[in-house]
Structures are given as structure tokens and as C-alpha cells.
Design a protein that fits this description.
alpha+beta, Alpha-Beta Plaits, four-stranded antiparallel β-sheet, two-stranded antiparallel sheet, 9 helices, 10% strand
Length: 298
């Protein structure tokens, strides 16, 4: 039992005895994890927004007025057979007019006169896709079908928006990875300085016959607590900061089309991830530093 508790006692002594080095390590972890948290929040929300945009990407297909009911059914079957098409819904010209009037709200009442035989709208298909990447190619295939008057999907603007969101999301993930490596580098170098300042203690331990594992254990435990305590500040800032931003923006980014991830349980998941990341970085960083040192002084 004493064999297990001894490294823990030595770790706590080391943390307080070399407080300036401990504080430097804690700040390195805290600052880096705060940046990681920021980019994680951005990346997760952009991923959700991208999925929302992709799920709402549709092709609105107008059918030529000369096409009869049998022709409409045949067209629907052909469109459904296109690879990448998830669902095809028929919308009569009466339903199209209703949707058009509703889109204008109260001002749409001026279009009431077009009900009945005066209806200028076309029968249409609403085509939903399984993958937004296929939007342009499927749109072009449908346009070229005989009996199709028009196939609209927002053009290049929609495609550019989706690509832009995907690039930002991928860039965020890359930055998170880079920051993780940077945090590990900072911890390794900070703990390396700490170990060098305690070289006399390590020499004494070796003189009395301590094994490398026994010498290494307190430093690794210190790394554990540095990572854990270093994650507390970014966890608190992330919870309070994200909740404030979410409430200030009303839960959306600019428009209801772009909803933000709800505060709970997202911040709890983020907190757990930051704590685990801090602990892993502390453990790995301290282990690498002390192992290199012990090899170098043989």
C-alpha cells in the first residue's frame, strides 16, 4: 500500500515545492485547451449547420403543362431511378400556388385572383437528395428530360455555401489537431525544465537504488494532475461562454436556418472531452519528458 501511496505523496510535494514550474505547465495546458475548446465549439456547430443545409437541399422541378397524368407518373419513375435521389414528391399546380401565396404572408392575398383556371403555376416535383455533392449533376440530368420545363436548386450559390461550410469545418478539425500537438509540445518542454531543476533529487534516488519506474511514477502523476487542473479553467470558460453566446444569439447563427447546438448536454460532453484531453496530454507529456531524461543520464 505504501508503495502505491509513496509516488502520489512525492507528486504532490513536487507540485507545491516547484510551484512556479507547476503554474507554467498549468497555464500552458489551460491556454491551449481554451483554444481547442473554441475551435471544437465552432467545428461542431458548423458540422450541424452543414448537415442542416444539406438536409434541406432540394431540387424544384417544374413540369411542362402539356404533360398528362400518365406522363407525370412516368417522369416521377425516371427521376426516382437516378442514383442519389432519395425521394420524389409530386406537387400539383394548386399546391404550388398555395405555397407561393403562403410564402408572402398577408401580402400574398393579392394573388388569390389566380385560383382556379387562372392558375399560372406548373405541376412540380420536389426532389430530395441523399448527398448534396450530387446536386448539380442530378439537376442537369432532370433538366434534360423531355417534359421538364425547369429544375431549380439555387444554382452555384447553394453549392458554394455547402463547400464553404465543409472547408471551414475541416479547417477547424485540423486546427484542433494542431493545437493538441502544440499542447503536448509545451507540456513536454515545461516538464523537461522541471525535471532538470530536480536533477539532484533524481541522482539521490538513483544512488539509493530506485528503479526508473519508481523515479518516473511521481512525475507521471504530476502530469496527470497538471492536465486535470489545467483543464478546469477552460471548462468553466467554455460552459459560461457558450451559454452566454447561445442565449445572446437566440440559439441561431444569423438565421433560424442555422441553429446552434443546444447548450445542454453539449457543454457537459465538451467538458468531459477537455478534461480527458488535459489528462492524456499531461500523462503523455510527463512520461515522454522523464523517460528521455532518464535515458540521457545513464
Amino acid at each position: 500500500m505504501n508503495y502505491i501511496l509513496q509516488p502520489i505523496r512525492e507528486a504532490f510535494k513536487g507540485l507545491f515545492r516547484h510551484f512556479s514550474m507547476t503554474f507554467s505547465s498549468l497555464m500552458a495546458v489551460s491556454v491551449t485547451l481554451a483554444l481547442v475548446s473554441l475551435f471544437l465549439m465552432l467545428t461542431v456547430n458548423l458540422q450541424d449547420i452543414t448537415r442542416t443545409v444539406e438536409s434541406k437541399v432540394q431540387i424544384h422541378v417544374q413540369i411542362e403543362p402539356e404533360v398528362d397524368e400518365a406522363g407525370i407518373q412516368a417522369l416521377q419513375t425516371r427521376i426516382e431511378a437516378i442514383n442519389g435521389v432519395q425521394e420524389v414528391t409530386f406537387s400539383s399546380k394548386e399546391e404550388e400556388l398555395e405555397a407561393f401565396i403562403e410564402s408572402y404572408g398577408k401580402e400574398g392575398e393579392i394573388f388569390e385572383m389566380y385560383r382556379g383556371e387562372q392558375n399560372p403555376m406548373r405541376n412540380a416535383f420536389i426532389v430530395e437528395l441523399g448527398d448534396s455533392v450530387l446536386l448539380e449533376s442530378i439537376g442537369n440530368q432532370i433538366k434534360n428530360m423531355e417534359g421538364i420545363e425547369k429544375a431549380a436548386y439555387g444554382g452555384t450559390n447553394t453549392l458554394q455555401l455547402i463547400k464553404m461550410l465543409q472547408r471551414i469545418r475541416d479547417g477547424g478539425l485540423m486546427l484542433v489537431s494542431i493545437l493538441g500537438v502544440l499542447a503536448l509540445f509545451l507540456i513536454i518542454n515545461t516538464i523537461k525544465i522541471t525535471i532538470q531543476s530536480r536533477s539532484h533529487e533524481i541522482s539521490i534516488m538513483r544512488t539509493i537504488g530506485a528503479t526508473n519506474n519508481f523515479i518516473r511514477a511521481p512525475f507521471v502523476i504530476e502530469g496527470f494532475f497538471i492536465g486535470l487542473f489545467g483543464s478546469l479553467i477552460p471548462i468553466g470558460v467554455s460552459i459560461l461562454g457558450y451559454r452566454y453566446v447561445y442565449n445572446a444569439l437566440g440559439g441561431v447563427l444569423f438565421t433560424p436556418i442555422f441553429p446552434l447546438r443546444e447548450v445542454y448536454p453539449f457543454v457537459w460532453f465538451l467538458s468531459y472531452l477537455l478534461a480527458m484531453l488535459g489528462i492524456v496530454l499531461g500523462l503523455v507529456g510527463s512520461f515522454i519528458s522523464v523517460t528521455r531524461y532518464l535515458r540521457g543520464v545513464r
